[in-house]
């Protein structure tokens, strides 16, 4: 039993020795595979260049009707006429609603009759004033009465006109909020009117783009309801003030919307096309993100590596703009960044 037990122990020790040797050999192989001649780490590098970039600013915007109002009752009265076809287009000047205007019509008729009589009296006094000096004071008093009645008549006619609510511009009616025959108070919303032939889109861009954005620049918007179908327009206005908290400026664009697919209040994905210019570009593979910062590895003349923080800007497929941190002519690592750190020596492969 003793020799058998001894052989078993030696067999276990030999197996452990072989396993440890295999692990050592594997670690050596993995180390050597990532290194070039002289123990340098094999990586691929590239020179930083300046190239023209098609630059865009992306933002989230909100659709706003080009003209939009609430049609409100000017006074408290019964609603005797209501022409609200919800969602339908109405022309400028078309009657939307009419309030009970019997009293206003009677008031206008009364004042017109009074004015007619006062004018007749005024004409009689004018004839007397040519022969009787004492009639001049009576003529002045009558002229004052006529002027006062004219002012009252203008006010009454305006009040009568206000009892009929008309469309101030061509647009589409919204949902009606009242019913015909109802007694409504002054300020009651009857319906809404939106001009949607053109849709304004409101969005904000960062302060650093303020010097580049201008009225007339192309704008493209998309909405989740229509997938990737683009709706094109132009910048129509730029706010004169910046938000002191976000350091952003509000921009308005005008989108042609004859199909009426876009609606006020929609969430829109906005792309603002800026002018193309020469920028410093690097491959996206060269970036090393750490928390909220971006780094690259720069190679010096002795093939030693230094990690450097960069500020990035516009991205396009495969490439990214570097705003600060690199200069044209710098050499950076574009493949193998996961194997290096500051101070190591690299071996260039396929630079």
Structural summary, described in words:
Strands 1, 2, 15, 16, 17, 18, 19, 20 and 21 form a 9-stranded mixed sheet that branches. Strands 3-10-13-12-11-14 form a 6-stranded antiparallel barrel. The chain is of the alpha+beta class. Helix content is 25%, strand content 41%. It is built from 3 helices and 21 strands. It has helices at 2-33, 102-129, 135-162; strands spanning 41-47, 49-53, 56-72, 77-82, 89-90, 95-99, 164-166, 171-173, 183-184, 189-206, 218-222, 231-242, 248-256, 267-273, 277-283, 288-290, 293-299, 305-316, 319-324, 331-335, 346-348. 18% of the residues are buried.
What's the structural blueprint in terms of helices and strands?
Blueprint: H1 2-33, E1 41-47, E2 49-53, E3 56-72, E4 77-82, E5 89-90, E6 95-99, H2 102-129, H3 135-162, E7 164-166, E8 171-173, E9 183-184, E10 189-206, E11 218-222, E12 231-242, E13 248-256, E14 267-273, E15 277-283, E16 288-290, E17 293-299, E18 305-316, E19 319-324, E20 331-335, E21 346-348
Parallel strand pairs: 1-21
Antiparallel strand pairs: 1-20, 2-15, 3-10, 3-14, 4-6, 4-9, 5-8, 6-7, 8-10, 10-13, 11-12, 11-14, 12-13, 15-19, 16-17, 17-18, 17-20, 18-19
């Amino acid at each position: 039993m003793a020799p058998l037990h001894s052989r078993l122990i030696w067999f276990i020790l030999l197996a452990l020795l072989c396993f440890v040797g295999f692990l050592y050999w594997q670690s050596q192989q993995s180390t050597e595979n990532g290194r070039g001649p002289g123990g340098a780490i094999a990586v691929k590098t590239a020179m930083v260049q300046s190239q023209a970039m098609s630059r865009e600013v992306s933002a989230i915007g909100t659709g706003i009707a080009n003209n939009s109002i609430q049609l409100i009752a000017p006074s408290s009265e019964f609603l005797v006429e209501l022409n609200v076809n919800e969602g339908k287009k109405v022309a400028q000047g078309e009657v939307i609603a009419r309030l009970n205007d019997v009293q206003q019509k009677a008031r206008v008729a009364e004042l017109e009759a009074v004015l007619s009589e006062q004018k007749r009296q005024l004409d009689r006094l004018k004839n007397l004033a040519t022969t009787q000096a004492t009639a001049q004071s009576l003529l002045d008093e009558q002229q004052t009465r006529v002027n006062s009645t004219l002012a009252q008549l203008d006010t009454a006619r305006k009040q009568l006109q206000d009892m009929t609510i008309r469309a101030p511009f061509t647009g589409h009616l919204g949902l009606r909020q009242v019913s015909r025959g109802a007694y409504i108070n002054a300020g009651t919303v009857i319906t809404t009117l939106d001009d949607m032939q053109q849709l304004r889109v409101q969005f904000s861009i960062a302060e650093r783009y303020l010097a580049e954005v201008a009225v007339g620049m192309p704008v493209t918007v998309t909405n989740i309801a229509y997938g990737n179908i683009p709706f094109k327009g132009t910048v129509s206005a730029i706010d004169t003030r910046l938000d002191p908290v976000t350091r952003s400026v509000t921009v308005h664009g005008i989108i042609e919307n004859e199909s009426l697919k876009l609606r006020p209040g929609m969430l829109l994905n906005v792309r603002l096309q800026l002018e193309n210019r020469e920028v410093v570009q690097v491959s996206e593979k060269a970036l090393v993100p750490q928390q909220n910062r971006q780094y690259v590895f720069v190679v010096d003349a002795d093939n030693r590596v230094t990690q450097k923080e960069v500020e990035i800007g516009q991205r396009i497929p495969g490439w990214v703009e570097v705003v600060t941190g690199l200069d044209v002519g710098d050499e950076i690592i574009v493949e193998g960044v996961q194997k290096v750190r500051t101070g190591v020596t690299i071996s260039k492969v396929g630079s």
